[in-house]
Inverse folding.
């Protein structure tokens, strides 16, 4: 985007160079632009177009204007799913940061075996969500899994406890699984932020007599504002789009209490075959997501006068 | 297994080509996982005996409908599909299927094909689906465990009280052994095996034409009480509560379950994969007497516009032959041709006769929104059965399901 700001009034010769540079710049970004157009803008446009139709999975589709959007207003199960998604997002984001921040502080400074710890903590992040869900789905199985049978065999419980049968244990099992999977990734982002804080600032503060807590509050946190914003937006956006773990491990259960917004879109599109309605729901979710991201960016914006 | 089939297919193709016959064509066919026992066998037999070949894909039960819909929309649908018969009308209505009326009626044995299948395969007087596999729900019990528990191993339960009493006795053997098993979070499993208990007692969950949900009946409540009492007495493994169908068959096959409602498919699957299990087959009984069954299975449907129609027809014709029907029966499907059913079953396990009788008198519910109502993992039926079997609020769960089901029926497009 710097190519645009470069186009300020200039002598004819300079302008010619600038305009050539503009074209070269455009050429450089062309592959990225092409990718965005083909894989984002066009599908987005198609989704918007489909959302204005009654579009079954099989058979003919017909234009119905804003009919789908009017139906969404009355779709209490979608709003319930959205409410659950919000609840999940808040809980899981807090849980991820509570685990990832201490980990980042722990692995930030060089010390014996640091690389081993970093690798260990990061490892689950490279597993896909679907594979991780399948793994945990087995771990959590009451008859042939790990947790419940192990606790039973060790004599910790009298009878096997089905972790997935009621809401609270099922929900917290998912939170545990997601934290296990994602915290390592957030840790790396936060660690990079920590390492970018100039060492001399910390040293100066030490000389001024600041304690560890004061340094964390007055130096580390403010200087990590942008890193935190990045980690937060990634975590929130990822959580709002949660689907795999609830589909694979819980099937939206127990008793449909863990249906997320994306799960509901999937159900409408591929169980009830209402692709148009699913597209309209997706557009609503997109608006929610963009709005939330803007709010976060605004909250974590750079304070005036701070470079 | 799949590699073996592929190799055999290749070998047969090479052999066929070597004989200088017409160029072999390969048709792609899908089947749901329920057919994973008999389907590879019959495809195998067909491929060995024919120049044309069939390539089979087995799709998980819950995925086959959305996967096919998506493939059809994207133009990559298989040439034909063994489709759960209850979906045939909605697929035909969507204009997705090839009209095979003329070919079907030209079959000399058309009149003796399973009427339940042909009825669901017919849409607006045109035939879009023909019977392929048949399955009726039955009750199976483990004879070895019955004997150990001091019960008559040759006598299965004939009413609800006997189910509960026998399950309790078997359960008393202790250890890993449990009295009863059902998939408590699987709508499809329970429409197949739980509703016959209601039907046999004179109740129903949908009106005849599928336009009214009729859940709140004394028969449904009675059947719920039966299951609840067994769950309460700890006769059912803890995993049943969250089983979405994965253990529907596997739990009994492991050999430590006394009684389980199941289907005719279990006979073939047990005989071939678990020959050590000694089991009996009986009807799903009513509260005091009588019995009922869900007449299910698959219709064979052809994707509209496929170029492999001759291969598909040849394959189906082979499946209808005595050889094909015998293979199907041997590996878990009931015969779908009435005129040769006896012959196809003649050398087989006599327990098939119970299932064949259940099939002949079984019921098939009809609804254009069957998936939304019953089979969907998040639909009202699935939610209700889980709540009423394991939850605290039976009345609330029934009322909620009744209301949701009726509203889904009312909002369905009128076709």
């Amino acid at each position: 985007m710097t190519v645009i700001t470069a186009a300020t009034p200039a002598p004819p010769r300079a302008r010619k160079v600038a305009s050539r540079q503009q074209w070269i710049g455009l050429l450089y970004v062309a592959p990225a632009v092409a990718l965005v157009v083909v894989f984002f803008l066009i599908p987005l446009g198609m989704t918007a177009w489909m959302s204005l139709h009654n579009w079954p999975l099989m058979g003919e589709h017909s234009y119905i204007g804003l009919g789908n959007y009017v139906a969404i207003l009355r779709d209490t199960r979608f709003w319930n799913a959205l409410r659950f998604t919000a609840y999940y997002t808040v809980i899981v984001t807090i849980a991820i940061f509570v685990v990832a921040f201490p980990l980042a502080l722990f692995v930030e400074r060089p010390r014996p075996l640091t690389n081993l710890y970093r690798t260990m903590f990061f490892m689950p992040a490279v597993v896909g969500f679907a594979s991780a869900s399948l793994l945990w789905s087995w771990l959590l199985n009451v008859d042939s899994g790990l947790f419940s049978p192990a606790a039973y065999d060790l004599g910790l419980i009298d009878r096997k406890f089905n972790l997935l049968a009621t809401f609270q244990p099922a929900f917290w099992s998912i939170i545990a699984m997601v934290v296990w999977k994602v915290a390592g990734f957030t840790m790396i982002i936060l660690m990079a932020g920590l390492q970018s804080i100039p060492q001399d600032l910390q040293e100066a503060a030490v000389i001024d007599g600041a304690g560890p807590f004061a340094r964390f509050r007055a130096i580390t946190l403010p200087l990590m504002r942008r890193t935190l914003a990045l980690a937060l937006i990634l975590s929130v956006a990822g959580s709002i789009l949660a689907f795999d773990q609830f589909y694979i491990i819980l099937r939206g259960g127990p008793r449909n209490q863990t249906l997320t917004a994306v799960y509901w879109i999937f159900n409408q599109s591929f169980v009830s075959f209402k692709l148009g309605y699913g597209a309209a729901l997706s557009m609503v979710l997109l608006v929610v997501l963009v709005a939330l991201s803007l709010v976060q960016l605004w909250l974590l914006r750079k304070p005036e006068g701070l470079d | 297994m799949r590699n073996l089939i592929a190799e055999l297919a290749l070998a047969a193709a090479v052999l066929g080509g070597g004989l200088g016959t017409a160029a072999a064509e390969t048709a792609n066919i899908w089947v749901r996982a329920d057919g994973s026992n008999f389907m590879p066998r019959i495809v195998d037999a067909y491929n060995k005996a024919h120049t044309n070949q069939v390539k089979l894909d087995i799709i998980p039960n819950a995925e086959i409908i959305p996967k096919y819909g998506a493939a059809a929309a994207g133009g990559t649908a298989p040439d034909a599909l063994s489709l759960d018969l209850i979906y045939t009308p909605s697929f035909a209505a969507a204009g997705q299927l090839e009209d095979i009326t003329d070919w079907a009626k030209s079959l000399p044995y058309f009149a003796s094909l399973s009427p339940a299948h042909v009825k669901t395969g017919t849409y607006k007087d045109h035939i879009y689906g023909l019977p392929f596999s048949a399955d009726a729900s039955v009750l199976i019990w483990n004879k070895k465990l019955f004997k150990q528990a001091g019960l008559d191993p040759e006598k299965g339960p004939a009413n609800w009280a006997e189910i509960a009493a026998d399950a309790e006795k078997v359960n008393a053997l202790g250890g890993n052994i449990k009295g009863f098993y059902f998939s408590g979070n699987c709508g499809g499993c329970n429409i197949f095996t739980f509703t016959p208990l209601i039907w046999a007692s004179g109740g129903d969950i949908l009106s005849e034409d599928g336009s009214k949900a009729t859940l709140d009946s004394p028969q449904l409540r009675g059947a719920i009480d039966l299951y609840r009492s067994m769950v309460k007495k700890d006769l059912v493994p803890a995993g049943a509560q969250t089983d979405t169908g994965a253990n529907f068959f596997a739990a009994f096959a492991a050999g430590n379950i006394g009684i389980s409602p199941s289907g005719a498919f279990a006979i073939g699957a047990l005989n071939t994969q678990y020959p050590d299990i000694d089991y009996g087959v009986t009807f799903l009984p009513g509260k005091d007497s009588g019995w009922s069954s869900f007449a299910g299975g698959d219709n064979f449907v052809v994707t509209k516009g496929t170029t492999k129609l001759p291969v598909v027809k040849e394959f189906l014709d082979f499946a209808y032959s005595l050889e094909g029907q015998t293979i199907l029966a041997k590996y878990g499907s009931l015969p779908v041709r009435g005129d040769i059913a006896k012959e196809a079953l003649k050398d087989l396990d006599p327990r098939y006769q119970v299932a064949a009788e259940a099939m002949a008198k079984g019921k098939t519910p009809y609804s254009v929104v069957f998936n939304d109502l019953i089979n969907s993992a998040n639909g009202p039926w699935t939610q209700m059965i889980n709540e009423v079997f394991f939850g605290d609020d039976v009345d609330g769960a029934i009322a909620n399901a009744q209301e949701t089901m009726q509203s889904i029926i009312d909002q369905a497009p009128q076709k």
